[in-house]
Amino acid sequence: MWIDTHVHFDTPEFDATRADDWAWARDAGVSAQIIPTVWPANFETVRAQSSLFPNTFYALGIHPMYVMGLAREDSIELLHSAVVRSMDEDKFVAIGEIGLDGFVSDVDWDTQVWFLREQLKIAREFDLPVLLHVRRSVDQVSKHLREFNIQKGIAHAFNGSFEQASVYVNMGLHLGFGGTMTFERARQIRRLASDLPLSSLVIETDAPDIPPAWVNAGEHNYSYHLPRIAHTLAELRGLRHEVLAQSLWHNTLNALPRLVQVLPADI
User: Fold this and answer.
1) Three-state SS for 94?
2) pTM to 2 decimals?
């Protein structure tokens, strides 16, 4: 019924219980998961895990917080080669996680921008959507998206203004909402989730990060929390679960068109 559009299922937090976590998510009603990579070292790990677990899909990209210390041209060549190899696989759906991060101070901005632009070139070359990291960088990322004419993908964990959100929506992108939305004090994000066009929204966990309000401090997030996160969105918008689930399913397939090859159009 639900698609977790952003879960780092390959991280060590899942090592001891990964098969159980996958089963618990399916039992809870999570029909599919998208795993983004963060740097070349986990390309093959994520690709292998997606083949082990049904309806688990992957994206290939270099996260802005992982760019320091990477050999620039070599890393982009590794990404390009991995994309070429994956284009015939129905589990491969996007370029990501890529973007810019204006929150951390120890990652050189110019290096982040270089990696983003090189990866947007790859997305454009292969006509692939992007999974975007836009923390404190919403306007800067959108500028590069416009330059490369990127019209498909998801700005994950979106936390901008309504006006900034509208820029992404008008470009054809979708916006990801997750655990932060479940906190009553997150008024701006809850307003966005309530007021943006329903057709522009998708949901995510970002597990093991960004746990929802009911998870104890210090505990990890998991995909099986997604239906309860969706319940919060349904309440905010005054929608029945069935209506929301159908809409978000369609939105995700629109954002990540390669999913249409393997997932049903309706649920």
Assistant:
1) strand
2) 0.98
